[in-house]
Amino acid sequence: xxxxxxxxxxxxxxxxxxxxxxxxxxxxxxxxxxxx
Length: 36
Description:
Layout: H1 19-35
């Protein structure tokens, strides 16, 4: 499976992130919850 990455190098602000970036962040957070 290919590793997904957000479209920016940092998250200092949310102005330039896309809906796909937000979904990826939430999906990643869900995976961390499963580990904890």
